[in-house]
Amino acid sequence: MERRQLGQTDLMVSKLCLGSMTFGEQNTETDAHAQLDYALGRGINFIDTAEMYPVMASRDTQGSTERFIGSWLKKTGRRSEVVLATKIAGPNKMMPWIRGASHNLDATNIRSAVEDSLRRLHTDYIDLYQVHWPSRNLPIFGASSFNPQAERPAVPIEDTLGALGEMVQAGMIRHIGVSNESAWGVCEYIKHAEARGLPRIATVQNLYNLTARAFETSLMDEACFREGVSLLAYSPLAFGQLTAKYLDDPQAVGRLTVFPAGWSPRYVRPAVLAACAEYAALARAHGLLPSQMALAWVYSRWFVGATIIGATSLAQLEENIDAAELVLSAEVRRGIDEIHARYTNVGQ
Ligand SMILES: NC(=O)c1ccc[n+]([C@@H]2O[C@H](COP(=O)([O-])OP(=O)(O)OC[C@H]3O[C@@H](n4cnc5c(N)ncnc54)[C@H](OP(=O)(O)O)[C@@H]3O)[C@@H](O)[C@H]2O)c1
Fold it and tell me: Residue limits of the NADP-dependent oxidoreductase domain (predicted)?
């Protein structure tokens, strides 16, 4: 599988990254190990996880995902073969079990989070350590417009960056990245890195799929291009909606039916369902699986450094990796842009 450079670092990663947020909730430790074995067998060398996983987040399961990856690393001894990315949770009142859900991104909390992740992962270094979401007021996870009235005290980016720099100096993490960030946030990290000789962010892990293309219109593409920051695209199938399985059978077993109703409202909006129905019809009219068209499209975008895929079975994983071979015709691309013009960023 094609390898790409992450940001301006020496990290070379497969263009597909194995996501892991189902490990410990929808997937057992045995399933997780089978997915890791299979992914590496198909040429994937890049694994993404987070201290808060699995999803749906809970006090009882938090950390299981890293633990399952750690037990696989310990069992197989394949640490040097993978580029391992994890994340520190930002503050979130819904997750008080993660360091009290406040000041998560200051020096004390960052050190404690890194030490915990290293212990769970059975490793002594993390290749890419990412800030899962910012400390400051910013619309994320389905909220789309900035609200100045929601301003709140936050750990300044400069302080977070300084603390991450100390972790790099200590050899506990090699490179850094951000997630659920804006163009302003990306540029702010770079500005402080250059001013103070601190590490540059290599990546931004943001939502990107056929129903959520704000990356292209929020100045993110230009900022990342000019600053040498790679996009790690997450949720390329819009939580499974772009496979069309819920359109074919609204009761299909999957993340959007097994978790409590209302858990993830952004992926069940009527406009998302309508857009997914049109994308599925387009794919099928060209003899493609809806999932493979949606994935092949993300895989091929010029600004995507790597696409983080997720699966709850080996069959899904196989289908999603196979899509890396698919080249979409100009006609399909035109059809995608026509649908996008009518359903712009409905899943953002
Ligand atoms: N930074 C962040 O805030 C953030 C947020 C979300 C995700 N992520 C990262 O990105 C990774 C991928 O995100 P995601 O899981 O949301 O990606 P996704 O591609 O949008 O959804 C993946 C889910 O869709 C279903 N699916 C996948 N392939 C399928 C197929 N071929 N046929 C039918 N159903 C299929 C599976 O769930 P079911 O079987 O349950 O339907 C699978 O778990 C995560 O593991 C995580 O590492 C990061």
Answer: 15-339
Is 279 one of the annotated active-site residues of the chain? no
Confidence label for 101 from pLDDT (cuts 50, 70 and 90): confident
- The answer to whether residues 202 and 177 touch, using CB atoms and an 8 Å cutoff, is yes
Find out whether the beta carbon of 206 lies less than 6 Å from any atom of ligand 1. Answer: no
| Degrees, nearest 5: CA angle 319-241-95 | 105
Predicted confidence (pLDDT) per residue in 164-174, tens digit: 999 999 999 99
**How large is the average pLDDT for residues 246-251?**
94
**Ligand 1 pocket check for 241: Cβ under 6 Å:** no
Percentage of residues of the chain with pLDDT beyond 70? 100
Choice from 36, 140, 239, 272 to test ligand 1 binding pocket (greatest atom count within 8 A of CB): 239
- 245 C-alpha vs ligand 1 centroid, how far in Å? 14
Domain boundaries, the chain: 3-240+299-325
Fold of 3-240+299-325: TIM Barrel (3.20.20)
Query: How distant, in Å, are the alpha carbons of 63, 64, 297, 317 from that of 60?
Result: 9, 9, 37, 27
Which residue has a Cα nearest atom 29 of ligand 1? 316
CA of 262 to the centre of ligand 1 (A): 18
In the chain, the amino acid numbered 216 is E
Q: Residue 250: which residues within 8 A CB-CB, separation 6 or more?
A: 257
Centre of ligand 1 from the C-alpha of residue 255, in Å: 9
**What letter would DSSP give residue 268?**
G
